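Today's session is about reading a structure prediction critically. Students often jump straight to the picture, but the first step is always the sequence itself: look for stretches that repeat, for charged clusters, for runs of hydrophobic residues. Only then move on to the predicted structure, which in these notes is written as discrete structure tokens rather than atom positions. Here is the chain we will use throughout the hour.
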Amino acid sequence: MNIGIWIRVSTEEQAQGESPKNHEHRARMYAELKGWHVVELYDLSGVSGKSVIEQPEAKRMLADVASGKIQVLIFSKLARIARNVRELLEISDHFERHNANLVSLEESIDTSSAAGRLLFTVIGALAQWEREEISARVSASVPIRARQGKPTGGKGPFGYMWVDKQLVVNPSEAVTVKEIYKTYLETKKLLTTAKILNEKGYRTSSGAKFGKTTIKRILTDPTFMGMKRANYSTYNGSKRKSWTLKPKAEWVYFEVEPIIAKKEWEEANAIIRHNALPYPTTPPPVGKYAFSGILRCGHCSKPMYMMKYPGMTTCRYTCRQCLAKISEDVLFEQFKEGLKCMVINPENLQETIRNNELIKQQKTDQLKTLKSELKTMDRKIESLLDLLSDGTIDRTTFSEQFEKLKERKNRYQKKSPGSRAK
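Below is the predicted structure for this chain, in token form.
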């Protein structure tokens, strides 16, 4: 019987002597005693047991089971497969569908029997419970450690470092932090500050250049004025935005040595809040201004909206696509002139309507004539083809006549966009 060996040992367990080689050796000895033939080794060393089903090695193992390449999978203990009960059951169902078995050496589980399948499910549930209990205990300890000023995971913010479980100032990085605040208070612009810092040769702790986001993060972090914030975010498992803020009631602050004076920090943050307010990111609601969303851009035909900024003496409708603008005063003057034609001089409006009707009728008659001519050209071309097929005319004569008819037809088609060439 062909079997596969599954190895998953976390980095921490490897440090404690639980090496992948030891797990592989025990599995090979068991297979030898059973007279089984080892054909595959699936090594997931260092992979967390929280979720393994999407790992490349796990997918390869499931594919080998489906194809019949292996009939048994041997592993040291159940927790080495996965700690997630849903994934354990999914793996178990996959093996059952393809008449394959799971063998756990430590728990003596063999899923070929009903008792083995029951024990498999129960121990899997206990493994998940244990993991969630550990996670809950760690989460509960975070606020307590934060209030005591102890590390809660990760390295200290830029400008600080952990020394003997205390957050202290990093002298070399503190110089950069002071330069960031000094430059921003002078320029009042994030991007300009980043550019100046980079030109002077300042870099982040990883050696990268400063960007707008990094500068803003340093300017808004209260740690630099002496108040370290902790227990304010949580991991949500999302790929796009992994961290979300906790309710402010759960945030914890503790004092550290400041790098920046509180007055400087508050001044910098006041500028950031002020710069964020004046520029609307979305158009005002339709209806607040008379022509918002109704007025169309003369360049790209996109709707135009009123964009009013502090300090402007007049309002302007703006196209968000090509940034074309028209003053509200100019637009209303044109609108009033149009109203005069309809209300004050209604005879002008009637004359315009009559002229438009006349032009419309002329265009309709012209289109009708062109369609008739195109049909005539099609009939002549068909007759010419009949004469060629009957032998009445030779190919040279046919080509000469056909080119003349084709040229005339093309002229009519250009004058009549609505017609289609046949």
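Discussion point for the tutorial: The chain is about 50% helix and 15% strand.
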